[in-house]
Predict the 3D structure of the following.
Amino acid sequence: MKNFRILLALAVGLMTVGCYNDFDEPAPAKVWSEKEVQELGLQHVSIAEMKAKYSEFWGSIEHNGGNKADDTNTLKMGPARQEEAGFKNLKFWDEAADMYIKGKVISSDEQGNIYKSLYIDDGTAAIELKLCGTMFTTFKLDIDNLESMWVYVKLKDMYLGNYRMMLSLGDAPSNGLNASGTDKYYGNSNFESDLLWRNPAREEFNRVLVGEPCRLVLGENIIEINKDNFMEFRGKEGEKYHSRLVRIKDAKVKYANIKYQNKNADGSWSEDIQTASFNPQNNNPFPNWIVTDWGKPEFDTWFRWAYSRNGVSLTGSVLVTVNDNAKEFKDGGVFSVRTSGYSRFAMKPIPMDGAVGDVLGLYGIYAKSYDKGSYTYEQYQITVNRVEDLKFPKSSLLTEEWIEHNTPESAYKPRVKNGAGEYEDLE
C-alpha cells in the first residue's frame, strides 16, 4: 500500500508538471479549412443571404431596432427551445441550425476602439459578431499589408438582431433601463463568457472557428468612398455597406455649429469664426463628446477624438465630408468618425477645420425614431480600428494651446455618474 501511494504521488506530480507545461506553452489553436467545416455536415450561406433572411421574416430593417420591446425583433438561427415558444419578438429560421457563414477579419480591438466585437466580410456583405474577451490575439489583422484570416461561424442557436438598422449575430435578446428610466431593449446581446463561443479543450464544439490566413482585396473587402460615388452609401441603397470596411478618400474635416478662434502671427487671437449650420433638426456641435445614458443625448464641443479624463470616458464624434454642399446627413457624403473614450487614442488632438486626409474604418448608421415606429437615416458613422487609419497631415493636428483656448468650460463638466450611482456635473 505504501509503494502504491508513492507511485500515485509520483503520477500526480508528473500530471501536474504536464499541466503547467501545457499552461506555459499551450498548443496552437486549430486552424480550420472550409472542407473540415463542411465535413461537420454544415451548409454554407453568404452573409448577404443571411441578412436578407432577416427581412424575409421581419420586413424592412428601417422599421426595427428602436430599443423598445414592441419594435425590436430577432431572428434565431435554428428552431425554438421550449421556453422560447410564443415569444412575439422572436422568429425562427429552423434550417440555419445546419448552416455556417464565413468571412475575412476586418476589425481589431487592439487599440480599444472596438469592444467585444469581431467584424467579418465575405465579399457579399459584412456582419458584427457580438462576442466577449480579447479578439486581436486570436483573430489576426494587418491592415497595412492587407493580411487577414478566414473565420467560420456555426449559426446554430445564434441570434440575428437589429440595433437601429445595424444587424449583428450574438446571444439572446436583453432588456434594461437607462439613467432616465427609459426601456432599452436589444435584439441580441454579447456572449457573457468566451466559453460560450469557443472551447479550447474541444475545438469541434466552437461556434467561431479560426481559419486559414488570407488577404483583403481592395474593392471587395475594402470599399472606397469618394466625391463621385458617395450617394451609393446613403438611404436604402447604402444598407448593403453596413458593417463593411471603407476608405473615405480625401475626407475633409467639418466643424459645425460652433465658434472658435485661431492664433495670429503676433500671438493674439482672431475674432470668432462662426462655423456653418449642419443637421438643422438639432444643431448639435461638431466636433463633440456625447452622453447617451439620458433619454435625450447630451453634447458639448470637444477637440479631441474622445473624452477620457477623471475616470470618465465618453464617445467623441468628428465630422468628415466628401460633399461640401451637404447640410445634414441625409444629403449624403458626410460621416461621423466615432471614437470610444476607452480607446488608446481618445485624448489625441483632432485635425483643424478643413483638413483633408483619408479615413479607413467600419461603416455604420445610427437611426432615430420620428413617428410611430418609423425610422429615418439619421447619422452615418465610421468606427476606426486604429489611430493610424486616420491619415491626416501631422501639420493639420491642433496644438494643445489651441485646444485649451477654444474648449468651452462646460465641456469639462459632463453629467456623469458619481460614486452613489447618481448623475451630476463633474467637478
Observations:
- Residues 1-24 have pLDDT under 50 and may be disordered.
- The CA atoms of residues 39 and 161 lie 28 Å apart.
